[in-house]
Predict the 3D structure of the following.
Amino acid sequence: MPVGSGETWALSLMVATLYSATPLVLAALGGVLSERAGVINIALEGLILAGAFVGAWAGQSAPIMGLAGAVLAGALIGLLHAFLTQTLRMNPVVSGLGITLLASGVTRYLALRWFEQGFRIDGLPGGLFLGLALILPFVTLLVLHRTRFGVRLRAVGENPESARMAGVAPVPLRYLAVTLSGVLAALAGAYLSMSDAHTFSSNMSAGKGYIALAAVIFGKWHPLGASLGALFFGFFYAVQTQLQISGVQVHWLGVEWTSPFLLDCLPYLMTLAALVSVVGRAVPPAALGKEVE
């Protein structure tokens, strides 16, 4: 491969990594906010799907309407998750799975019903979402460690009883944190439908919500750590995409390692490897998943 083409490939890989990581970073930041408040949020996958669908549907009239619709949908579903877990005391894993399954079924049904012939929207520039993914980790870090809201949120996630004795009401803070989590995850979905694909397809989140949650654990519930974890996983999304585009073929031990079927598994395999590497070393917030009396 000539030097020039090698440099071009490396540059393309770097750009592809940033854009591949964009939805993962946004969803992972949502996971950080929710879980630092003590609420397990495996509903990220469903929130991404809901944001993608509403963004594409409302974005047919105007891109700004699509973005606003996605944010509103994420806030409402995040609020639902908070209501189920904090008011009705439902197990957060059950609630999260239920929301994800509901979002998957409803968006698939509505897409087949309303968009049987397919559709395409102008959408929004990817640079907008990339900019958010670059800025929001630092904003989230600042909020969590330099504001009264962030200090109280972390206190609720570590010891809600002590926070209550200090005059902080845990439940309203958890409601707000989970609602904001829904907004960020829905923005990740809006990126997929409004900037990346310019349309909606069933289950287009393709497990990104779960990978974002893995990035939260990999990053030890820290905004910058989770974002770096998302960038790590985004790199492998970009690698498999760039290898397929370039047509590179690698044969070894009778196996075509650059087969599209194997390459599509790469991000998920690396997610498992990353999680195994932090088992026993990643300490979650002390009150994560615990009910507030």
